[in-house]
Structure formats: C-alpha cells, structure tokens
Write a structure and sequence with these properties.
The complex is a heterodimer of chains A (471) and B (701). Chain A has 471 residues and is an alpha+beta fold. Chain A has 16 helices and 12 strands. Chain A is 38% helix and 17% strand. The chains are: A alpha+beta (471), B alpha+beta (701). The interface between A and B is large, with 110 and 94 residues.
C-alpha cells in the first residue's frame, strides 16, 4: 500500500522505500476480550452506531465522553484503482484539489480554520480510497463537519486550480520518486512489475501517476471524476470522540442532507493480475548508495481467508530484531542494513513483499539468495510456538496502541468497513489473527511465496540517469 | 448534481446570521444552507489527571499516572545529566552508554532481550539527550511484568559486551559521517557551537575522534556514575492500579543503590555584541541552509508563555509568518520555521530554513527583518487570535494518550516547573496580549546580535553575503578555514605529477576478513602521457578502466571504461571540453553523446587518488578534489582531509601511512596512503561497514 500525504508538515514520503521498519498493514484491528487485568475490559473494542442518509452517505458514530478530542474522518471510495489507462494520477490530483476552495471556503481556509481552532488535519490516498481527516477540540466538531460538507457539495473545480495543482503534483513526484533513493524501485515492486498492466491496470499503475497523463488532464475529465466519485453515496463519514450523538446526527443531516446522490461508479476490473510472473529486472538509481532487493509475490484480497496467515507470516519474517530476516541478514550475515516483510493486501488482489537494503559492498543477488534460503527454511521447517505467540502479541499490542487516539479509532472503523464490508470487523481482527495456526503460516508460505509467482527487482546505486516512466 | 462555483461573498464572517446549535433545528425541514463557519459548540472543561508521587528511601522519585482508555502501560526512567555530563574529550559517552545498555545483562544476551520484549509485543529502549539518559519500557498491561523486569535488568545489571560496544561504535561513526552529508545537521551543530561556546556542554558534540577514543571501561564507569536511584525519576503511565504498581516498583527498585548525584555544571555562554555570519563551506550545495538566532531563556522564565505565542506567530507552523512569506508568497523554500528550546539550562531562539542558492541574500535580509518586526510592531489581532487559539485549542489533543500526558508531566517535573504551567496551559496562553508579545520580543529577540549560520557553497553564495556582517568560515566538520582556503588564491592548484612512478599494485576486497574480490592498478608512461589502468572484480561485477592524463601538468586527456551491466564510457578532453560517448542499456536511456565544458582543475574520475598520491600530505592538510560526474554530467567534489600518521599492516607488509578521510562522494571513505611520495594506497576503508581494500602485491621498479 502506497500512501501519499498532502501537507508538508505531515508529509511522509511513504512510498514504502523509507518505511522499512515494520510498516505493517493490518486489517482493521480490534482486540478480543482476553483475560482482563487490573479491571480492564477487553482493550481495543470500539462501540459504534451506523446509518445512511437518504442520499446514500454512510455515517458511523462512536461517541466516547472519556476522550478529549473529536475525529471527523471521511473516506471516499476513490483511489488510483478507479483510474483507467491515460488517467493515472487523477485520484491523487483530486486529493490536492479538495483543498483549493469551495463555495463558502476560500483556498487555504480549510486548513487555516482547523488550525486556528486548535485542530490538526491531513489527507492521504492509496489505490483503494482517499481519506480526509481532522482531529479537533470537541467544541469544534461542527466546524469540521461543515467544512467537509461544503467541499463535498461545491468544490471549485477550475482550470486555474487544476493547472496549479498539476504542477505541484509533478514536483511532488520529482521529490518522492526521482530525487529520493529507491523511489523508482518501489514503484516497480509495488505496481508496474508485479501486476499485469493489461488485465489489471487498476493496480499496475502508481498512485502518483505519470507526468504525461497529468499534463494531459482536461477539466471535463476532472469534473467527471469528481461528479462520479465525490458523491455522498460513495463516501463514509466517521465521527469518534467526545461528542453528543444526537447533536452529531442533527448537524450531519443539516450539512450533508441536501447534497444530491451521484450515480454508482463502475466496477473495477482486475483479472489474473499475476499470470505474467515471474519477472526480474534492474533499476539504476543515482540517489541510492546501497544495492537493494525487492521481491513481490502475488497474493490475495484483504478479506480473503488467507489474509490473517499472511499477516502473521510477515510478522515472523520481518517484525523486530528477533524476526527471522533481521537475525539472519542483518545480525548474522551482516549482509543487509535493513530487511522487511510486508503483507500489502488490498481491496483487489494484493502482494506480499520481502525487501532488503544491502550493506556496502554486498550485491543484491546475495540478498535474494539469503531471502530465498529463509523462505525455504520456513516452508520446510514451519514456525515455532514462540514465534506464533510473539506475532499474536505484536498484532494485539499495535492494534491497541493505535486505538488510543480518536483518529486511530476512526481509521480502524473506516478500514474495517471499506475492506470487510462492516465496521464491526474492527472488533474481530485480533481474533482472526489468534485463529491462525503454525500449519496455516507454513501453508501460505508454500502457496504464495513461490519463485514462479514473483517479481524480483534489484536496485543498483550511483549509476544511470533518473528513470522517466510513462505508466 | 450542482457544483457551485466558489463565490467571493462573505465566507469569512464568524457569527453570521445562521447560528446552529443542536436545539435550534426544528423537528421537520432543514434550515437553508449554512454559508459561514459555525461558531463553537459548548466547551467541555478539561481535567488534568491526578497522579501519585512518592520518593523511595534510595532517592528514586516514583510518579504513577493512571490514565487512558486502552490497556497500555509505559515506564520511563530519567537519569539527570545526559550528554551534558560527557567529558569534553569524550563527547558521545552518554549516547553510547545508553545504546549499549540494552545489549546484554548478567542473565540475558542482546538477542534474548529483544526476543523477550518483542515476544510480548512490547518495546524497550535507552537513549541520551542533552540533559537526561532515558530508559523506556512499554507493553500492554497484561505483559507489564515482563517489561518491568527487563527494565530493571538493563538498568541494574547491563554487562556492556565488547562486541556490542564495537558494533555501537561503528554505527555511531557511520551516523556521524552521514551527518556530514546532511546540511541541516551541520547547521545545527555549528549553531550550538557558536551560540553556547566550547566551554558549555550544549556547544559540544560527538566527533569521530572522541567516539574512537571511548573505551568499554569508560562506558562502564559512566554507567556506574549515572545509573543509580539518587535524583532519578521513574514515571509510569497507563491503565495501572497505583497501589499495585507502587508495590511492584518498590520490589524491583527499592533495593537499587542511590547516592548524591553529580549534575553538570553550566558556565555562562559567551555574550554577543554583534551579528556575525558563520559560513560553513560545503562545495556542491544546491541550497543554502540557514540557522539564525541566539540564546533564549531559562525554562522557568516568566516570559515563557509570551515567547510561546510569539514563536507560533513567527514560525511555529505552516500558519505562521516565516512559512507564509518565504514559501507561500516568495516560493524560495519548501519550509521555514522558528523554535524556542527549553533545555535544563538556557535555551535558544532560532529560525531555520533551506532556500535556493540564488536567494541567499534575500533570505538573510528577510529573516532578520521578521525578528525586527516582532520588536517594532504589536502583532495584529487576527494573527494573535490564530496563534493563541491554536495553542490553547490544541491542548486537549495533547492529552489523548497516557504517553502524551506522561511526556508533559515529565518535562514539568524534570525541569522543576510549577504544575499549573501544564494544567492551566490554555488559560496562560489566552492571557497573553499583543503588548506582552512585543515586550518579550524586545527583551529577548536581538537580530542585531544574532548568529547567522549559513551552510552552502561559497563559490555561489559568498558574494551575496559580503558586507552584510563579519564572516567567519568553517568546513562541515567545524574546523575553521581562512578566506583563502574557501575561495582560493585565484591560482589553480599545481599537482607535482613528477612524483608519480611506473608500477602496478594489487588489492583484495574484504568483507569482515573474507576476500570478496580483487583489483589491479597499473601506471605506465607513454610519451608525455601517464596511463593508469584498473581491473576490478567485485560481487557487483567486473570493471576495466583506462585513464590518461598529462605527465607535464596533470591535466586530464581521456577515459575509457567498461563496467558491468553493459555500461561503457569513452571520453576525451579537447580544448577545455570533454567529448565522447556513454553506452548505456535501454532502461538507462540508451547511448548518449557527451559534450560539455570541463573547467581547469576538474579531473576525470580516477584521478583524485593519483592527485593525493602526489600531494603534500601533512597532518591537517585538506584538499577539495573536483571531478566529472561521468554518468550524469556536471561536477562533483570530494573533500580529503589528512588526520595523521598511522602504521598499517597488510598482506604485503607493514607501512607507515597518512590517514585521509574522504567525504562528499557516494560513500564516506578512509584512505591509508604510503607516507612517502608517491603516496600509493595501502588500505581503503568504507566508514561504518566491515569492508576494506588491502594491498596484496606491489611491483614498483
């Protein structure tokens, strides 16, 4: 999953290249009601209600008078997966346009209103959705709701705004892809190489898009994208924290109720995305100082029964110093500076990645050799009870830690709803992980981590011109 | 579906006609569309949580803060002193001690410690800041026993294994070398050195020399001095029962030795009476990094709240003057901010930004002007409201998690500040007026005495800054430079090419003492030309190079290079230009023609080492070596600095060598060059990595 955040202060060049230490993508987490300690009742569970407005806006409310803040979080079912060939980067461009002003809000004011109220805000985009979120002091929940409704209703889609933001996005692309180490390698590993670009263009192109497509964007195309995807029936609004539920319901009806429903978006096609594998390639990167190896295996949808086992596999292979890859590649062989395992599952078919950054003087081929040995060893010998226990504890802990904030809980509910079809899935994820056995982990490793089912990318540093890619 | 175009009408009126509260809506029908931001709902008072505060007999202060909606817990142990206790010739001591603390105890190895804490999904770490060494453990509450046991174990019985010490040393050196390539880090070090001076601990920082000098015994002695209960603070936060937790803490830490704690002594930093530019020359910089400011206030200063509001107005975020002017209006930079620090001793006030090289002078002027503005004009109401509302309004957002609350509490307790500064923070902020801000600026902001640190390429930037203030020069390590060293005397460097000798040398490449590849270099004379050939075999493939340069004046003549992956270069130098062809594989763009100017004194790659072979090497000597970037075009520069003499043993013998540090290239290197001219390479090391190149054979007639 590649995430692009909008604002510089909150900006995370999170194309995966830098986020190698445990950037793990859990399904919407929830903590089971395990044995309470100190009178604690089942950490992580979130109580909520949900309903729909007449115009189709899905609303999830999780009031909690013990919080000190309110999160207003809006997910649009609009991501790069909805972009057809020739229109890559539109969803991300749109994320930028959403801050350029609407009927009652000048350009830049959304941000200023929220900050001057004491809040924080940002937006982010992946292949599968765009989210807009703010955390505000409780008395400013109405401001956040009003701002979201104004831009959903009346965003200023103008030629001037579009031209300006195309320039900004192209600069952003330069910064995170062309000027950052491993930018291009990561795009190859996450998108271009591993997905068939004809049968699954949806996932075969990058979220940031190509310069060519961005420069070719026409105002009508952008308007049409907005009309189709930025409609209440294509959105979920979640409010979490210190608020009165009756007040929230009234405000939501008042601000959002009159926004007309849109047409249902077309289905996304992604068929046989991995039948062209295996592939292997090299990327030359003048910003990188060390070789790197990226292995992307074709995997499953996030709601697939094997998803939890793949999550556990990623933990055991790559999470923490006691993980297999760290122990073997970093500590024992001293071949890698960093090693990671990522279970990047999506709404459509996802991928499972192993990544290693080599130490100076070590070739990427050596990393591949070691990674293959560790995968083969796991397939042959399985995993220990201790490793399984550790993985479960790691998932439970990070789930619970993430639920400490109102925004963390809002994201958990949104993720559950988007990927599993119901926010209630936020309250069963740890159970799903706990149900994974050692045999399950071994099986999914054998089934998915096969040399025939992968794209291998080697990054070679310090040589070569920057890649211009046209996807 | 309608999409209304943005209109200019009255979007800004607060308290406009339509005031919305929950009860104002009728039971049926909707109000007309809300066209202005609604005024705030009713505010709920924020309660700062209670906490238990006891001091054990051994002097350990224990604070237990039950808080939070999730079953998490954290324990943070603070030992006062931190990096400020580092001896001047051992800067980095506290930091290394903290790093090795969790890497082995009397009963557990480093692996066992990681397995134990990660096994329960928790975390354990130790670090040293300027003023405190901090050891932290956290986990879900059902695993708190494991976390607390491990915390006690590393705090009380760490063993500092030799191999872990060396691993930490290598990582630290690697980090320091990497810092030299990060202009923001270089600017920060120089700023602190200048503003605090050499005699104040905050003005000092670890260097490769001090980190190399630290011994394991010294780390253990430092730990013995610092790791005891006297004057330490253990702060535990989360969903914990105070009675049960206090009992557990007494069991684990009650028997810990405690005694009087030696704290750092802080001398008064130097006073400033004029603005001075401290220019750190960094050849090849494409941006100028600015750090502008001076000393601020001590943490308990009564003007702290006025200064906090002032800082928010000046540069405390994107909604602040520096960001709006330098970035949004002028487009000079990606970001510009200001900060006021609050360490145990006196802090600083500073503005920081990175700008395009060509606007360095405008940035200089603008930053000082913004400092002046705070003194000359009261902040207008809208800006003041925006700043106060952000600071006060965001207060509850900083109380969401137990960790956040604990952090605020820790700062208050450790700096000895009144608790009301935290618990009544919003009120204190709202009470600050524009007059308060201006008065505080006049008392504490002095652009006419500022230290102005600029990290950039003097070749591009110096003339923009001439005459604006006195200028002092430094290299990225902080060594003072003369103006001549920075701009040169105008004469090109003369290389004593006559010192070269024909011959060949062979090297082996080692990874942790295992041979991994080999290289052979040969130097032969061909009329008026020297020919240097190299054949290198490494895990990355094989490479053959032929380099030709003049035996008369060392000027470059040609380069022919055949690398793995189908890359070839064939270049010749004619009339001050380099021309030729690069053969590159398709995915690198295919073949390209080369035709560009090659300035006098710029080498073809490979000549840098030969330049050092003929240079006058002595301790402290420094050279900037500029060479053509064959792959991308343009120039690159590496800095070579001779640090001293060292005897080196390699397969072919033992040699007296000059040790030379090379920085600014792709990888920081250390070269050991034969003490006698020509200074052939005896050994090459890659900083921070267990890789080296050693001389294994030499045929020199």
């Amino acid at each position: 999953m590649t995430m692009h955040r909008l604002f510089t202060r909150g900006r995370v060049a999170a194309t995966g290249a830098v986020a190698l230490s445990g950037f793990l993508l859990f399904p919407a987490p929830a903590v089971a009601q395990d044995g309470p300690t100190n009178g604690v009742t089942g950490g992580g569970a979130i109580e909520f209600t949900e309903y729909h407005l007449d115009n189709g806006l899905h609303v999830i409310l999780a009031p909690d008078r013990g919080s000190t803040a309110v999160a207003v979080n809006l997910w649009y079912n609009a991501g790069s997966r909805h972009e057809p060939p020739g229109r890559s980067g539109f969803a991300h461009l749109f994320e930028h346009l959403m801050f350029q002003g609407s009927e009652n809000v000048e350009r830049g004011e959304h941000f200023q209103f929220i900050e001057r109220a004491g809040g924080s805000l940002n937006a982010s985009i992946t292949q599968d959705r765009t989210n807009y979120f703010q955390t505000v002091p409780p008395e400013r929940m109405n401001l956040a709701l009003w701002l979201e409704s104004d831009r959903m209703r009346s965003l200023s889609v103008t030629q001037e705004n579009m031209a300006r933001e195309v320039d900004v996005v192209i600069e952003e692309r330069r910064q995170i892809v062309d000027n950052s180490p491993y930018g291009t390698s990561n795009l190859q590993a996450a998108f271009y190489a591993v997905y068939d670009s004809v049968s699954c263009f949806a996932y075969a192109h990058s979220v940031i898009g190509s310069v060519e497509d961005l420069r070719a964007a026409e105002l009508e195309d952008v308007q049409r994208f907005f009309d189709t995807y930025y409609a209440p029936n294509n959105a979920t609004l979640t409010v979490v924290g210190d608020f009165d539920e009756a007040v929230a319901r009234e405000l939501i009806q008042e601000y959002f109720g009159d926004i007309p429903r849109g047409t249902e978006p077309a289905e996304v096609i992604c068929e046989d995305p991995f039948s062209h594998l295996p592939v292997q390639m090299e990327v030359f990167d003048s910003n990188a100082q060390l070789e790197a190896a990226w292995i992307s295996y074709g995997a499953v949808q996030r709601r697939h029964p094997d998803a939890a086992a793949l999550n556990v596999l990623a933990q055991i292979l790559g999470s923490g110093e006691s993980s297999r890859l760290h122990q073997r590649l970093v500590r024992q062989e001293q071949a890698a500076l960093q090693a990671a395992a990522l279970s990047g599952l999506r709404l459509g078919p996802g991928i499972f990645q192993l990544i290693g950054i080599a130490n100076q003087g070590v070739a990427a081929e050596r990393l591949l050799e070691l990674l293959d040995e560790e995968v083969e060893r796991l397939i042959a010998e399985g995993v220990t009870d201790e490793e399984l226990e550790r993985a479960r504890n790691q998932v439970r802990a990070s789930t619970v830690l993430g639920r400490q904030t109102v925004m963390g809980r809002a994201e958990a509910l949104q993720t559950a709803n988007h990927f599993y079809g119901t926010p209630e899935a936020a309250n069963t994820t740890v159970q799903r992980v706990d149900a994974v056995s050692a045999a399950d982990v071994q099986r999914v490793a054998r089934q998915y981590l096969s040399p025939d089912n992968r794209a291998v990318i080697f990054t070679r540093p310090g040589t070569g011109q920057d890649q211009e890619d046209d996807r | 579906m309608t999409r209304n175009r943005r209109s200019n009408s009255a979007a800004l009126l607060v308290g406009a006609a339509l005031v919305v509260t929950g009860s104002a809506l009728g039971a049926e029908g909707l109000l007309a569309q809300v066209t202005a931001p609604p005024p705030p709902l009713e505010e709920r008072p924020i309660e700062f949580p209670d906490f238990r505060d006891v001091t054990l007999d051994n002097g350990l202060r224990v604070v237990i803060l039950p808080y939070g909606t999730q079953p998490v817990f954290s324990a943070n142990l603070y030992l006062p002193g931190g990096g400020a206790l580092d001896p001047a010739d051992r800067t980095g001591m506290a930091s290394m001690t903290a790093s090795v603390l969790t890497r082995g105890t009397e009963t557990r190895s480093a692996e066992e410690i990681s397995a134990a804490i990660e096994g329960v999904g928790g975390s354990l770490s130790a670090s040293a800041g300027q003023d405190f060494v901090t050891v932290s453990a956290s986990a879900l509450v059902d695993h708190m026993d494991v976390a607390l046991d491990l915390l006690q174990d590393v705090v009380m019985s760490a063993t500092f294994p030799e191999d872990e010490v060396e691993l930490t040393r290598r990582q630290t050196l690697s980090g320091l070398q990497a810092q030299l390539g990060q202009p923001q880090a270089v600017a920060q070090r120089r700023f602190n050195a200048v503003v605090y001076g050499d005699d104040h601990p905050y003005g000092r920082a670890p260097t490769p020399a001090t980190v190399e000098a630290i011994t394991r015994d010294e780390l253990v002695a430092f730990r013995d001095d610092v790791m005891h209960a006297g004057g330490a603070l253990l702060l535990i936060a989360g969903q914990v029962d105070p009675d049960a937790m206090e009992g557990r803490v007494r069991e684990l830490f009650g028997g810990w030795e405690g005694r009087d704690r030696e704290l750092p002594t802080f001398v008064a930093p130097p006073e400033r009476d004029e603005a001075v530019i401290y220019f750190v020359h960094r050849p090849g910089s494409v941006q100028s990094v600015f750090g502008v400011g001076h000393l601020g206030v001590t943490p308990d200063h009564p003007d702290y709240f006025a200064l906090t509001v002032m800082n928010r107005v000046l540069g405390g975020g994107a909604d602040a003057r520096l960001f709006q002017i330098l970035r949004e209006e002028r487009g000079w930079t990606y970001g510009a901010f200001s900060q006021i620090t609050r360490p145990a001793d006196i802090g600083v006030i500073r503005a920081i930004t990175e700008v395009r090289t060509d606007v360095s002078d405008s940035t200089f002027v603008e930053l000082l002007h913004q400092f002046d503005r705070l003194r000359e004009e009261p902040v207008p109401a809208e800006e003041l409201d925006g700043a106060r509302n952000f600071l006060a309004g965001s207060f509850p957002l900083r109380l969401e998690t137990a960790g956040q609350v604990a952090g605020q509490l820790a700062q208050s307790l450790l700096l000895g500040l009144p608790l009301e500064d935290v618990t009544r923070f919003p009120d204190r902020i709202r009470a600050v007026t524009a007059e308060d801000v201006q008065r505080a600026a006049q008392a504490h902001v002095h652009p006419d005495r500022a230290a102005i640190i600029v990290v950039g390429d003097a070749a591009d930037v110096l003339e923009q800054l001439e005459g604006r203030a006195p200028i002092r020069f430094f290299d990225v390590r902080g060594e003072p430079l003369t103006r001549e060293q920075v701009v040169g005397s105008g004469e090109p460097v003369v290389w004593e090419v006559d010192r070269l000798r024909e011959g060949s040398r062979r090297y082996d490449l080692y990874l942790q003492d295992n041979p991994l590849g080999a290289a052979e270099y040969t130097l032969t004379r061909d009329g008026d030309e020297w020919v240097s050939t190299a054949v290198i075999q490494s895990p990355a493939g094989s490479q053959e190079t032929e380099l030709r340069f003049s035996a008369v004046d060392f000027s470059p003549i040609s380069l022919s290079q055949d690398m793995a992956q189908g890359i070839q270069a064939n270049l010749t130098v004619e009339d001050g230009r380099v021309v030729g062809q690069m053969s590159l594989p398709a995915q690198m763009g295919g073949d390209r023609e080369v035709d560009e100017a090659l300035a006098p004194g710029v080498f073809l790659p490979g000549m840098e080492e030969l330049a050092l072979a003929v240079a006058d090497l002595e301790e402290g000597a420094a050279f900037t070596l500029r060479y053509l970037d064959v792959m991308q075009g343009g120039q690159r520069a590496v800095e070579a600095r001779v640090t001293g003499r060292e005897e080196i043993q390699v397969p072919v013998g033992t040699f007296d060598t000059w040790r030379v540090e090379l920085s600014g290239g792709d990888v920081p290197l250390v070269l050991y060059l034969h003490a006698e001219a020509p200074h052939v390479l005896i050994r090459q090391e890659f900083v921070g990595q267990p890789i080296r190149l050693d001389l294994t054979g030499m045929d020199q007639p």
